[in-house]
């Protein structure tokens, strides 16, 4: 044991079986352990992550640039399309103008040809008479023949100028004729008249309409379009008006709005005769939703409130009640609302009627020219928005008025049937039932 203490230290990996191969090693300490190599893999991961983030940022920027370029390209194509449409429209108008000019030019050429032919015939007759009347014994015949021929040859340009001046005079005298007709035509009733003493300040407050033996014709000498029409529409009642073509459906609107004065009878609105009320005072309390929506170029605000009588809150309230989706009241509206769909234009008209807060709503085929999906949307908006109003709906599609309180059936300007749809469908020989059966048959 003592002899082993003088041997040098052995490496731990060496065996003691062969002492001759002992190798002297330095003492093992913590400082002599080899240091681990640097973590190359982690550094690569960090560098790869930074590169990927830069790539993502570059791709995002490139996508944003491409999106902007695509948006500019779309706007440019849209402007180009509008420009091409405008050029096509101008070309169409130019073609129409050229067609009219071509007809005018052809008529002038044909007139000139006929006048030239008439002048030539006069000159030929003068020449023939000079030859027939020629006599060797008469010395004056040569002078008379020369004078007659010279005057005959001047007839042609004189005829041309005379006919041209006469036609221009007749054309320009049309303006005089129009002025004479305007000065002698009947004067329209006054626009504003103070309400009768028995009318409430908030007239009309209920919306009851009463027609009493109304006769209407559009012009003296024409047949009557309403013949002794009598009907009473209660307040807040929903009435559907149906009938064949020429039955007088639209004439009800004409009579109620006083576009044409009735020949006899009377129309009362909440007990007040509308003939004793000014035209503007009457029409501002009645709202019309036409079959073809009428919009003006400008903004949504201008189309809803052209006279700036209502606040923005009232306009937005009407828009929401009409279920119209808009981002701003200053959204542009093209001429005739061409930048809006037909359903949106109809909803704008509904919102305009809501802004007026009228008690009477007249709808002349309000959903006749739109698809069934938009029709259901508009009908739903109408039912919700005008629940407290008196509504008259002129309809050809009978399914739109099947939920009305009563249906008015017109024939030759007279009220033939006026009752609820369920009762009319149960009657034998009912015109309304025959119309419903005919439309059902056509749809199937």
Summarize the structure.
The chain is 48% helix and 14% strand.
Structure description:
- The chain has 444 residues and is an alpha/beta fold.
- It folds into two domains: 54-134 and 143-180; 211-443, P-loop containing nucleotide triphosphate hydrolases (Rossmann fold), CATH 3.40.50.
- It is 48% helix and 14% strand.
- It has helices at 40-132, 141-153, 155-184, 249-256, 279-283, 300-304, 312-321, 342-356, 372-385, 421-426, 431-443, and strands at 209-216, 226-233, 238-243, 264-269, 272-273, 286-289, 298-299, 332-333, 360-364, 390-394, 406-411, 414-419.
- Strands 6-9-10-3-11-12 form a six-stranded mixed sheet, sandwiched between helices.
- A hairpin with a 2-residue loop joins strand 11 and strand 12.
- The protein is extended.
CATH architecture of the largest domain: 3-Layer(aba) Sandwich
Class based on secondary structure composition and strand pairing? alpha/beta
- Radius of gyration, in Å, reads 47 Å
| Total beta strands | 12
Roughly what fraction of the amino acids lie in strands?
A: 5-15%
Strand order of the largest sheet: 6-9-10-3-11-12
Shape category? extended
Instruction: Report the total helices.
Output: 11
* CA-CA gap between termini: 121 Å
CATH superfamily of the largest domain: P-loop containing nucleotide triphosphate hydrolases
Largest sheet data: 6 strands, mixed
Helix content, binned percent = 40-55%
* Helix-strand sequence: HHHEEEHEEHEEHHEHEHEEEHH
Number of structural domains: 2
Query: CATH fold name of the largest domain, please?
Result: Rossmann fold
**Class of the largest domain, according to the CATH hierarchy?**
Alpha Beta
Mean pLDDT: 80
Q: Which regions have little confidence, pLDDT < 50, spanning 5+ residues?
A: 1-36, 38-43
């Amino acid at each position: 044991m003592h002899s082993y203490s003088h041997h040098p230290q052995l490496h731990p990996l060496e065996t003691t079986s062969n002492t001759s191969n002992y190798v002297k090693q330095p003492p093992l300490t913590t400082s002599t352990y080899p240091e681990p190599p640097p973590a190359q893999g982690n550094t690569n991961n960090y560098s790869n992550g930074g590169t990927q983030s830069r790539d993502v940022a570059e791709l995002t920027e490139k996508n944003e640039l491409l999106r902007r370029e695509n948006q500019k390209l779309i706007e440019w194509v849209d402007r180009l399309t509008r420009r091409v449409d405008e050029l096509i429209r101008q070309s169409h108008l130019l073609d129409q103008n050229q067609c009219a000019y071509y007809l005018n030019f052809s008529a002038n050429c044909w007139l000139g040809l006929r006048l030239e032919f008439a002048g030539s015939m006069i000159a030929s007759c003068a020449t023939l008479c000079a030859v027939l009347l020629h006599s060797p014994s008469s010395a004056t015949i040569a002078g008379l023949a020369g004078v007659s021929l010279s005057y005959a040859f001047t007839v042609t340009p004189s005829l041309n100028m005379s006919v041209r001046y006469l036609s221009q005079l007749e054309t320009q005298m049309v303006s005089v004729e129009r002025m004479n007709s305007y000065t002698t035509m009947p004067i329209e009733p006054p626009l504003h008249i103070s309400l009768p003493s028995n009318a409430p300040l908030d007239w009309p407050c209920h919306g009851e309409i009463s027609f009493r033996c109304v006769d209407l014709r559009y012009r003296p000498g024409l047949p009557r379009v309403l013949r002794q029409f009598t009907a009473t529409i209660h307040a807040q009642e929903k009435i559907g008006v149906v009938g064949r073509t020429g039955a007088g459906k639209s004439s009800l609107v004409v009579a109620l709005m006083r576009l044409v004065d009735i020949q006899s009878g009377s129309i009362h609105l909440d007990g007040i005769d509308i003939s004793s009320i000014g035209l503007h005072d009457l029409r501002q309390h009645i709202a019309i939703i036409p079959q073809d929506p009428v919009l003006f170029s400008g903004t949504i605000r201008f189309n809803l409130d052209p006279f700036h009588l209502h606040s923005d809150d009232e306009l937005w309230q009407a828009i929401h009640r009409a279920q119209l989706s808009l981002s701003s009241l200053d959204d542009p509206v093209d001429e005739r609302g061409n930048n809006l769909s037909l359903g949106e234009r109809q909803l704008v008209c509904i919102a305009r009627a809501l802004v007026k807060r009228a008690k009477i709503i007249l709808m002349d085929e309000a959903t006749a020219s739109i698809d069934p999906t938009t029709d259901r949307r508009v009908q739903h908006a109408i039912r919700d928005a005008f629940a407290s109003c008196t509504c008259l709906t002129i309809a050809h599609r009978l399914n739109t008025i099947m939920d009305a309180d009563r249906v008015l059936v017109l024939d030759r300007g007279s009220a033939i049937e006026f009752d609820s749809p369920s009762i009319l469908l149960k009657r034998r020989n009912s015109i309304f039932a025959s119309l419903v059966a005919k439309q059902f048959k056509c749809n199937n």
